[in-house]
Specification:
β2 (31-36) and β3 (41-45) form a beta hairpin. It is built from four helices and seven strands, in the order αβββαββββαα. With 156 residues, it is an alpha+beta fold. The model is unreliable at 1-11 (pLDDT under 50). 39% of the residues lie in helices and 22% in strands.
């Protein structure tokens, strides 16, 4: 049984789905593959390596995807299933501190057919949904603790 079917079976049986395992394997100099126990893969590397995302780009994509997914349900109820949207995320790295000081998201959505009052309601719904349910955005705003452990194997 693959991981997805196992999670679906667990949910149907009333059990909590098992946590997805995530890991990154080095495949070459400055080239890595991120993997999940659900079979997903993403290529990661330095910005001069073709065909990969940098870790910073993945952070931005995760934020944009979380924003889009958080707003998807409320927008589908109001706009129908076939609406198109794009979330663009930008922000330059501060190389002195090796961090992003600010990330900006632009949620692109065609609302031309709505009145200005209705457009504002939809904007408010998006912001409330994202503020309430976007785990990535909420984590970044709160400044999560990160603990690094290094397992070099036993000396025996």
């Amino acid at each position: 049984m693959n991981a997805e079917n196992h999670e679906n079976a667990s949910e149907q049986a009333g059990e909590a789905p098992s946590a997805t395992e995530l890991w990154v394997e080095r495949t070459a100099h400055y080239r890595f593959t991120g993997r999940s126990s659900r079979g997903a893969e993403v290529l990661v590397g330095r910005d001069y390596v073709d065909g990969v995302f940098t870790p910073g780009e993945l952070l931005k994509i995760a934020l944009g995807a979380c924003t889009a997914m958080s707003a998807d349900g409320p927008l589908t109820r109001r706009l129908g299933e076939d609406f198109e949207s794009t979330v663009r995320v930008s922000g330059a790295a501060d190389r002195e501190e090796e961090r992003y000081r600010r990330l900006e998201e632009d949620f692109e959505l065609d609302l031309a057919e709505f009145s200005e009052a209705d457009r504002q309601k939809i904007r408010d719904i998006i912001v409330r949904s994202v503020d309430r349910t976007c785990t990535v955005g909420r984590t970044l705003k709160a400044g999560a603790e990160v603990e690094l452990r290094v397992d070099g194997g036993s000396a025996e």
